[in-house]
Design brief:
Oligomer: single chain
CATH topology: Deoxyribonuclease I, Chain A
Number of domains: 1
Helix content: 10-25%
CATH class: Alpha Beta
CATH superfamily: Endonuclease/exonuclease/phosphatase
Number of strands: 14
CATH architecture: 4-Layer Sandwich
Shape: globular
Strand order of the largest sheet: 3-4-2-1-14-13
């Protein structure tokens, strides 16, 4: 099974510019898109309901053209869950869970901690609520895969300029500590599982400064799996040659 995750930074724009063809050519078993910024009915058919896929959207309810996630699955899920977290986290359309057999796949677009303390607190609270939820899933016997834009680089190896960013959101100690806790609980960062010391591997680049041209980036998009799935991992990739967004797609191959 191949799963692709991609913060598309506006799905309508990505489709209109022709970058959606990479998805159709790759034909993943599951595609998780973040920052869709559109309702399903606003999209062209090739993205709203692509042939061969079951499509599910969770859009922002309070602010149109903002946030939102979409999951496309070749096999119809046994269950689709849109609002599993406490109510205060549901309005922005950041969470979409699909279940197949004894595994659950969570597509998540974590908040950015910028724009002041209130927003950083919201991000950290979201982190805690999410971790509490997936721990309940594990305790209930489900295998967990979650992917998406986590909006934090974990270690210095995960961004090009760690010292310059140590006081900026996305690399703050309290944000990184949550990822430490996640790993300590047994969740596996699949990219580091295969490439523990690889440098220069990023998934996001600032567009204003043309940072991608110089590979001055951040690895803030991840696939995490519960420890029981590690023997089934077959490979991961960062598709940094794929354009259309300020993030690139990432993929996971797993025997499920």
């Amino acid at each position: 099974m191949r799963i692709v995750s991609w913060n598309v930074n506006g799905l309508r724009s990505l489709v209109s510019q022709g970058y959606w063809k990479w998805v159709t050519n790759t034909a993943p078993d599951i595609l998780c898109a973040q920052e869709v910024k559109a309702e399903q009915e606003e999209l062209l058919p090739e993205a709203a309901s692509p042939s061969g896929y079951h499509a599910y959207f969770n859009s922002s309810r309070g602010k149109k053209g903002y946030s939102g996630v979409a999951t496309y699955a070749k096999r119809q899920p046994d269950e689709v869950i849109y609002d599993a977290l406490p109510e205060k986290f549901n309005a922005e359309g950041r969470f979409l869970e699909t279940r197949l057999d004894n595994a659950t796949f969570i597509n998540v677009y974590f908040p950015n901690g910028g724009r002041g303390k209130e927003r950083l607190d919201f991000k950290l609270d979201y982190y805690d609520a999410f971790l509490e939820y997936v721990e309940r899933l594990r305790a209930g016997g489900l295998s967990v895969i979650f992917c998406g834009d986590i909006n934090t680089a974990h270690e210095e190896i995960d961004l090009a300029r760690p010292r310059e960013n140590e006081n900026h959101t996305g690399f703050l100690p309290e944000e990184r500590a949550w990822l430490d806790n996640l790993v300590n609980l047994g969740y596996v960062d699949t990219f580091r599982h295969f490439y523990p010391t690889t440098t220069g591997a990023y998934t996001y680049w600032d567009q204003v400064t043309h940072a991608r041209d110089r590979n001055v980036g951040w690895r803030i998009d991840y696939f995490f799996v519960s420890p029981d799935l590690v023997p089934k991992l077959r490979g991961v990739d960062i598709h940094s040659d794929v354009y259309g967004s300020d993030h690139c797609p990432i993929s996971l191959d797993i025997d499920l």
